[in-house]
Write a structure and sequence with these properties.
- With 288 residues, this protein is α/β, with parallel strands linked by helices.
- The chain has 9 helices and 14 strands.
- The strands form 2 sheets. A 9-stranded mixed beta sheet has the order 1-14-13-12-2-3-4-5-6. Strands 8-7-9-11-10 form a 5-stranded antiparallel beta sheet.
- The radius of gyration is 19 Å and the shape is globular.
Length: 288
Amino acid sequence: MTSATDSPSPAAPRLIATDLDGTLLRDDKTVSDRTVAALAAAEEAGIEVFFVTGRPARWMDVVSDHVHGHGLAICANGAAVADLHADGKLVKVRPLERDIALDVVHTLRAAAPGTSFAVELTTGIHYEPAYPPFQVDPGATVAIAEKLLHEETPGTGAPVLKLLAHHAELAPDDFLALARTAAGGLASFTRSSPTALLEVSGPGVSKASTLALCCAERGISPAEVVAFGDMPNDVDMLRWAGTSYAMGNAHPAALTAASGRTATNSDDGVAVVIERILAERRTFDAAR
C-alpha cells in the first residue's frame, strides 16, 4: 500500500469518486475550504468529480453548494443517481424489489432476533417502532416492516432504495458477517455506520457497480478513476478503481482494499491527493 505522497499516481485521471461521511466531510459534516478549492481545481482541469455515498439524495445538502461541472451523485450505496443541479432529482434508480426485501426481513429476524428495520424509498424513509430514529423524518410512517413493504397493487408503490437493519446488541462487523451468511444470496449487504446498522440493496447493487455503469456511459475505464473511502460500503469501489485511497481513519477492510492511503478526513486527505495529482499534471504538461 502506498501513501498519499508516494508515486506513481495515475498519469491521466479522468474521474474522482469520493465517499462523503468519514472521507470528504470533516467530523463536523462540513467541507473544508481547502477541499472545496481542490474539487473546483480538479473540475477546472477536466477531471470529473462524483460524490458516491450511502446517503439518500435528500441528505446531499452538505455538498450541494460545492458542485461544479456535472453535478451528479451516486446515492444510497448505488441504488440511485441524483442530479444535484436539479434539486437532487433521481436520474437512475436500481431498486430493491419488495418481495426480496420481505425475504431479507424474515431471514434476519430468524438469524438475529431483535433486529429492527427501516425502509428507504425514493420518497423518504419509514421505520419500525423499535428502530432507532437516527434522524427524525416528520413524514415517516412507523409500522412493522411487513406493512411498510406491502403494496395493495404490485408495482404501484415508490421504489425501495434500501432496507436498513439495526441490532442493539451485536457488534457491527459480526452483524454484517451473520447477515451475509444468512441472506447474502438474496441481496447486497454492507455497512457504513459505527453502530450495528446494515444497509441492504438489490442483488449486485453497490457503489462500485453503479460507478462502473456511469463510467461506462462516459467511456471512462477503471484505470482512469481515483476513488476515496473509509468504510465497508466503500470496499468494492476501492477495489474497482485503478487508483484508490483509504482515509487515515478508515476501517481495516477499506485499508486492505485500497491501493493507497491518505490523511484522515479531518486533515483533508482527499484534497492532499487531488493537489498532488494536479501538481504532477502541471509538471508533466510543462515538460512536454
